[in-house]
Description:
The structure holds two protein chains of two kinds.
Chain A (H helix, E strand, L loop, with lengths): L1 H4 L5 E10 L2 E11 L4 E5 L6 H9 L6 E6 L2 E2 L10 E4 L11 H11 L5 H11 L15 H13 L5 E5 L7 H18 L2 E5 L3 H7 L2 E6 L2 E6 L1 H6 L4 H6 L4 E10 L3 E6 L2 E6 L14 E6 L5 E3 L10 E11 L3 E8 L4 E7 L11 E5 L5 E5 L9 H10 L1
Parallel strand pairs in A: 3-8, 3-9, 6-7, 7-8
Antiparallel strand pairs in A: 1-2, 1-4, 4-5, 9-10, 11-12, 11-14, 12-13, 14-20, 15-19, 16-17, 16-19, 17-18
Helix pairs in contact in A: 3-4, 3-5, 4-5
Chain B lengths: L1 H13 L1 H38 L1 E3 L8 E3 L4 H6 L3 H35 L4 H9 L6 H12 L4 H8 L13 H26 L3 H8 L4 H30 L2 H6 L7 H11 L3 H26 L6
Helix pairs in contact in B: 2-13, 4-8, 4-10, 8-10, 9-10, 10-13, 12-13
The structure holds adenosine-5'-triphosphate and magnesium ion.
Amino acid sequence: MSDVLTATGNVKLKGLRKVYGDFAAVQNLDLEIPQGSFFALLGPSGCGKTTTLRMIAGLDEPTSGQVMIGETDITHTKSFQRPVNTVFQNYALFPHMDIFENVAFGLRRRGQKDIDKSVTDALELVQLGHLAKRKPGQMSGGQQQRIALARAIVNRPQVLLLDEPLGALDLKLRRQMQLELKRIQLEVGLTFVHVTHDQEEAMTMADTIAVMNNGVIEQLGAPTDLYENPQTAFVANFLGQSNLFRATIDSVDADNIVASDKDGRYLLSRKRIAAGTDLTVGSKLLVGIRPEKISVSTHDQLSGEFNHQTGTVRDASFFGVSTQYVIDTASGDHWMAFEQNSGGTVISAGTKVFATWKPEHAFGLPGSEDVLAGDAVASEFETTGS
Amino acid sequence: MAFAHALGDSSTSSGAPTTKAKRKLTPYLLLLPGGLWLGIFFVIPIFILFMTALQTPLPDGLPGQYIQTFTFSNFTEVLSRPQFLDALRRSFTYASLATLLALAIGYPLAYAIAFKAGKYKNIMLIMVIAPFFVSFILRTIAWRQILGDEGPVLDVMRFIGLASETTSVYPSSFSVVAGLAYNFLPFMTLPIYSSLERMDVRLIEASGDLYAHGLTTFRKVTLPISLPGVVAGTLLTWIPSAGDYINASLLGNQRTTMIGNVIDSRFLGNVDYPTAAVLSFTLMLSILILVSLYVRRTGTDELV
Ligand SMILES: Nc1ncnc2c1ncn2[C@@H]1O[C@H](COP(=O)(O)OP(=O)(O)OP(=O)(O)O)[C@@H](O)[C@H]1O
Ligand SMILES: [Mg+2]
């Protein structure tokens, strides 16, 4: 069993499943997290992120499937045997020990020498060295969260699981901690599995992002890849925002696809069509455009036959660097468009506008996808409406 | 805003004396019922007890007639009698043994109810309290049967070869301690249960996550966190055990006399009120001292 504690390599989840009663919290997860990488797990509340981490940590026994580190199968080992530490979503600090002892806990259990220095360093890292003698009950939520971080990271485990470790911190402190985390991860070469609700955090820190929904991973990839080429409507809506609408394929050639609906014709690059999309002429396709790729003007700029929608500005919000428009399109959708502030004037609400985009800026998804999937606001309306 | 400010100012300045006075009085008014209770049923009786301890027999009086003489020699005289000192020492020894026994049984029981009982939790809790529905005396007498020469305990012990035909466990110091432990077990179990129940189980997970195996987790996390319950339980067991006389009189013999029995017989049998009062007072004082030493040692105020 001692070899488990020293196991190294990629974290592999094979067909991992966790069922509570007749509810599958995690369904057949197959995942390989490369050693030393920063892996972010994104997804709406209740999608199974914590459950996944708990199975990696050994706190929950999977209903079926395997957890491996390198070639070592750790599925049936106890949590204390695994070279894995967790920053708990609810901190779980020991209330009867002072901060120093909390952080020293893991080191003491492994009989480490020179505990003082390691603990002091870890506390300095989270900027709480001066509070070493306090009890957790005497600290603020954000301070407790940082202690939880220090308590896990001080052990320098093979795999560090972080369950929203920075959620309670203010923006400035959060950015600082992000930098520190990234530094440690690169310096020591630890594998980080990071659960967060902060998309920006995931995008800037992670090598790989997995977007999870209803217990399955919808898509996995590098942040840019995920953003530019979402494979499902859920990912397109959940990660950033997307304007999605349904069109029918008119023609397909080696490089391009032409699709149309009653409002116009749309040219798409084949490279940007999601895998598995049915490309036969006459079938449905979801066309997606990110808000910042849309240009809004009062006259038709491209004046071509492709890629424009007419609409009316419903709302314009000026943010300084950009202006955010909500546009009611002719077909009755609400579109989002971000216009860089390049000196132009803000178009006021009620104005009739043209929304245009370049062919290479649109992506295509299978027509069977639900346009509203993963759209926080829209799906909220849906559920309250029903 | 300015209006509200002015309004606030005026109310505090003009109405200040009465509201302030009222505010100061409130806590005392709240304390009044409890204070009266304590005064009438605790302070005054203690005072009377103390005065009784300082009485001497009425010259040429009947047995049971005493006069107030403020003689402190009662204390020195009574406390130099080995018979009384032995009973006192025995009381504390039995109470301590019974407390340890109750702890050894009560802690695992409380742990099982808090963490392992699942849907049987409430049933198990009721079973812990159920004996209270039967009279204290009856329950204790039942132990005579259980521990008696023909009882099930000896039967089993004989069967597995732990006892011979002539061994007997009742009446003995063992049966007294067993009776005490049994009778006060709920007082041990419930506080421990409540402190375990309140504990966040995720702390156990966190401990495991930080390389502590089961036993270490228990020693370093579960036990320290439940310590307030253990302290409360041991006190609730030890204090009434030390003053108890039912168990010793029903399950014991001449050589297991506890201080409670002595006080009982002095007071009701010999109508020797001053001696009984001296013993009661001594018992109370010793308990007070031992308990405060114990509480200070376990440092409960340091916890959580
Ligand atoms: N012990 C349990 N018994 C039954 N259902 C559970 C249990 N633990 C979790 N679940 C369910 O499993 C699902 C996934 O839970 P999980 O804690 O993994 O969500 P999450 O993705 O971490 O959400 P959040 O972002 O809100 O923390 C939820 O629907 C939850 O209700
Ligand atoms: Mg969670």
